[in-house]
Design a protein that fits this description.
Elements lengths: L8 H11 L16 H23 L8 H9 L1 H33 L5 H19 L1 H27 L17 H13 L11 H9 L2 H4 L1 H20 L9 H8 L10 H31 L8 H15 L3 H40 L1
Helix pairs in contact: 1-6, 1-10, 1-12, 2-7, 2-8, 2-10, 2-14, 3-4, 3-14, 4-5, 4-11, 4-12, 4-13, 4-14, 5-6, 5-12, 5-13, 6-10, 6-12, 7-14, 10-11
């Protein structure tokens, strides 16, 4: 993971996780989708703020300590063990949410009979790749390819669509004040930017954040660029019609054409908006298997890849029965995610700081 340059595989992984399935979250959550652009910029700033917080927490521990090691250091073994279960449930909820969003979007872009095969591929591909090569290094290497593919494909989509985009659709800005902007920022920050929390659960990445934070800062430009491309394409094509569309990605892909040839480019849209989903799924699977091995005391995390996949599939099927539940869940998820992404880390930072102060006074 470590090279002489500031841009490494860690940077591409950061891009893949933060873009992830964010491109599939509906704009119809807003009454004024024009304000989404400002929320995307705030989301990029939020990534920088979280990285600063997480790095300050990691500096309290040793080189390869992860979140659970630091919780044990601050609050003891019992609390640490409890947090392993709690965060395991949260990551399970996260991957179920991501899989449901992919499922719902694909179901509206492709033929319904093809959807199960595609979703099954999203489940199986990461498992097979991790099994073949093993561990976080495989995910890092894959992220270089898929993140580059995602960014370049989004740029191509923007080039093909720019001539048909209506500039008037981006105005008026802040028509209903600042409240819609911050509401959407809350959704973006938890469903996209804040999910760099996953890095705190991988010891190898924790070590890199301590020593080479620049690699995790540089991708923010790519993340914001990709999300802004999505914003330009969605809003520029659909405008106020976004209010009445449950899956904007599916509708926009049906409108997009290659130049004047009128060749629809659904396949290109799928490639752009789902390549990073594979990266995020892979990291989530890897973390879930690590948590399972911690709970059971089995050192081999690959042993749990298949049962974890079955559990995730089952939970997704049970939780999300219809399209409306999938569309609205990111709003509910934002409330849960805030606890794990910001509140618990802040409490942990305070606990570690107090422990150092108390120890210094006793000495």
């Amino acid at each position: 993971m470590r090279t002489g340059a500031n841009l490494g595989s860690d940077s591409f992984l950061t891009y893949g996780v933060c873009v992830g399935t964010a491109a599939l979250i509906p704009f119809s959550l807003m009454n004024r989708p024009q304000d989404q652009g400002g929320a995307i910029i705030l989301g990029g700033i939020w990534i920088l703020a979280l990285l600063a917080l997480y790095r300050s927490i990691l500096r309290f521990g040793d080189e390869h300590d992860d979140l659970f090691d630091l919780i044990r250091l601050a609050f003891g073994r019992v609390i640490s063990k409890l947090m392993i279960y709690v965060y395991g449930i949260f990551v399970l909820l996260m991957i179920g949410k991501d899989l449901a969003i992919v499922w719902g979007t694909i179901g509206n872009i492709m033929l319904p009979k093809q959807t199960p095969q595609f979703v099954a591929a999203l489940l199986v591909i990461p498992i097979l790749l991790i099994c073949i090569q093993g561990g976080i290094r495989t995910i890092l290497h894959l992220s270089v390819f898929f993140s580059t593919l995602c960014l370049l494909t989004n740029i191509v989509i923007l080039i093909f669509s720019i001539q048909d985009i209506e500039a008037d659709y981006f105005f008026p800005l802040f028509y209903e004040g600042w409240k819609p902007l911050f509401q959407e920022f809350f959704s973006i920050s938890t469903n996209s930017s804040g999910e760099i929390l996953l890095f705190l659960l991988v010891p190898q990445i924790c070590a890199e954040i301590r020593t080479n934070i620049k690699r995790y800062l540089f991708p923010v430009l790519g993340i914001m660029t990709t999300n802004l491309i999505k914003y330009i394409v969605f809003v520029g094509f659909l405008g106020e019609y976004l209010r009445y569309v449950s899956i904007p990605g599916a509708v926009a892909s049906g409108v997009l054409t290659m130049g004047n040839a009128q060749i629809r480019i659904e396949s290109l849209v799928i490639l752009a908006w789902f390549s990073t989903a594979i990266i995020k799924f892979s990291l989530e699977y890897y973390i879930l298997t690590r948590i399972a091995s911690k709970i059971t005391g089995n050192g081999s995390s690959t042993f749990y890849l298949f049962p974890v996949g079955l559990i995730v599939w089952s939970i997704t099927m049970i939780m999300f029965q219809n399209q409306l539940e999938i569309i609205r869940f990111p709003e509910t998820y934002a409330i849960y995610a805030t606890v794990f992404q910001i509140i618990i880390p802040v409490v942990l930072w305070v606990g570690l700081k107090l422990k150092i102060i108390i120890r210094a006074r006793l000495e």
